[in-house]
Amino acid sequence: MTATTLDGTATLTAIKAELTERVSALAARGIRPGLGTVLVGDDPASRWYVNAKHKDCAAIGVTSIRRDLPATATQEEVEAVVAELNADPACTAFLVQQPTGLNEFAILAAVDPAKDVDGLHPTNLGWLVLGKPAPLPCTPTGIIELLRRYDVPIAGAHVVVVGRGITVGRPLALMLTRRSENATVTVCHTGTRDLSEQVRQADIVVAAAGSPSLITADMVKPGAAVLDAGVSRVDGKIAGDVAPDVVEVAGYLSPNPGGVGPMTRAMLLRNVVEAAERGAAAAQPARA
To answer: What does the alpha-carbon distance between residue 248 and residue 32 come to, in Å, rounded to a whole number?
Structure first.
């Protein structure tokens, strides 16, 4: 068996085309979405991520609003920029690129929840728990979108999520147990006994532990869908959590890079456009 590739790069291209049409529809009404970014310092990886986000925006007609600050920027200076973007009507949604070396929880909490493009504001995570509409975390949303685009059955599936981080594992488990997904979820982590046995029961495995080659072929049920959301570095190169031999057992496999990463970018773009659409709807005068 050779797994079907869950191609995040190709799916990102398709989603960009769809979003371009939605941005054009907004433009016809005099509305242009704008993505704001705040970058502190000159970390090469952070700068690359910010540049990629703005390149994506340019491709679909979204305005870029950049605020690049020196590494010496203080907590107060960063929060002042956050307040500026909160108040800027041209900024539909924005993010503060991590790491900043500052109190990042306080910075995130200062963001207007309606403009939280990452979907990680405490208010928005609370709405997720309560099942109310709000901006959703990009990586979990991208994982679900990728599964849907390749017609991988989610309803009734047993999903094992390896990793309990706030950006992937925890919100993904909540999203997969919504009625719209209807999966049964097991969340595993460093304290899980017999991880292999837990993973072996899964119809869908999401590896998001940041541990290179953690998931091996002998741990995967034949035909299962395996998504690699792990990010770490080995010999200076990006490494995922899924070992190469899993391709011989899995029914579906997302590559890393080229799988979940592009989907995160796609969902960030979608969050920007949806924020603009919500703003446009709220601005419409009520009908008598």
So the answer is: 46
What pLDDT does residue 285 have? Answer: 62
Say whether 201 is catalytic.
no
DSSP calls for 26-76: HHTTT---EEEEEEES--HHHHHHHHHHHHHHHHHTPEEEEEEE-TT--HH
Q: Which of 7, 56, 116, 118 is catalytic?
A: 118
Verdict on whether the full-model pTM lies above 0.70: yes
3-state secondary structure of 259: coil
Residue 97 annotated among the catalytic residues of the structure: yes
Q: What distances in angstroms separate CA 68 from CA 52, 54, 82, 96, one per listed residue?
A: 15, 13, 12, 10
Tell me whether residue 98 is one of the annotated catalytic residues: no
Cα separation of 53 and 64, whole Å? 9
CA angle 27, 277, 17 (to 5 degrees): 65
* Separation between Cα atoms, residue 91 and residue 68, nearest integer Å: 15
pLDDT digits (tens, 9 = 90+) for 156-196: 999 999 999 999 999 999 999 999 999 999 999 989 999 99
Burial of 88 (0-12, 13-18, 19+ CB in 10 A): middle
Phi, psi angle pair for 152, to nearest 5°: -80, 125
- How many other CB atoms sit within 10 Å of the CB of residue 89? 7
Residues 7, 56, 97, 116: which is the catalytic one? Answer: 97
